[in-house]
Every structure is written in C-alpha cells, then in structure tokens.
Amino acid sequence: MKTILTNKYISIETRKRALQCYIEPVLMYGCEAWTISKQIQNKLEATEMWFLRRMLRIPWTAKKTDERVLNEANKRRSLVRTIRKRQATFLGHVMRRGKPEHLVTTGKFEGKRSRGRQREKIMDGLATWLGPGKDILAAVKDRDLWRDMIANAYKQGT
C-alpha cells in the first residue's frame, strides 16, 4: 500500500479513503475488547499521525506540529474516537444480552481480588469517554438513549 498512499499523482482525499478502507480495519481488528490506557491512546494517535505524515511525504526532521499536519490533510484525529465508539456499541450489545459476558464486563463475578492496583477495565475507559456522572448500566437498557450518548460523545471528540 506504500506506493498508493505516497503517490503524489493520486489526490489526498483518495489516499485518505484508501487508508480508511484498507489499513484502519486491520489496525482496529478486535478493538472492541481492548482496554485503552493513556499510553496506548498516545501510541494509537502517533500511529495515525505517522500514516498522515507518510501520505503527505513530511519527514520527521521537518519541524511541523501534528496540528499543522492535520490541517494540511484536512482531517481530524479519528482513530481513538472510532475505537471508543465501536467499544461502546459492543458494550451495549453485550449488556442487553444479559449472558455471562455481562458478568465479566461489569466485573461482578465471585472470587477474591488480586493484590496490588486493580487493572483498568473497559467500563472505566468508556465512563470517562461518555462523560462523568452518567449511569452507563442504566443507559444501556434504553437503546435509543445509548445511541444518543454514543453519538454525542463521538461528535465532541473526547
């Protein structure tokens, strides 16, 4: 795909669509089950910027900020937002089913807690993305409310 994505005779819009169609699905495979920490989020954003810099043929030695690169490409950061949206959609599906996956996702299965700092759960990341103070478990039951919450969070770009 390097020859297509870096070809200066193909418009940037066509190259962005090729990136979105062929590379991002491979990159996001299984993202519904990922737990995205701040470190992983930074790596995903760096990967997105790496693709854009390669498409625009901007070397790393050029002192261009990420914002300038995004302006040149007429693009917003969307990779992490798309992953969060897919996670929220999948979470709504799992929670409405009410099967054992529901127990695992909410962390309400029996047993002792392990020692040390508790791992971050998918629910924690989605709670910060959707906004503080929102009752996720209650909102998931109402499909229309859940879709609206996801759409609003996606539009805000948090």
Task: Please explain how this structure is put together.
The chain is mainly α. 64% of the residues lie in helices and 0% in strands. The chain contains nine helices and no strands. It has helices at 2-5, 12-27, 38-55, 66-73, 79-97, 100-106, 122-130, 136-141, 143-156. Helix 5 (79-97) packs antiparallel against helix 9. The protein is elongated. The two termini are 30 Å apart. The relative contact order is 0.12. The mean pLDDT is 86.
Sheet having the most strands = none
Question: In total, how many beta strands?
Answer: 0
Write down the Rg.
19 Å
Shape: elongated
SS-derived structural category: mainly alpha
Q: Uncertain regions: pLDDT < 50 for 5+ in a row?
A: none
Tally of helical runs:
9
On the 0-100 scale, what is the average pLDDT? 86
Strand residue percentage? under 5%
Helix content: 55-70%
Terminal CA distance: 30 Å
- SSE arrangement, N to C: HHHHHHHHH
GO molecular function: endonuclease activity
Protein name: Endonuclease-reverse transcriptase
Keywords: Endonuclease, Hydrolase, Nuclease
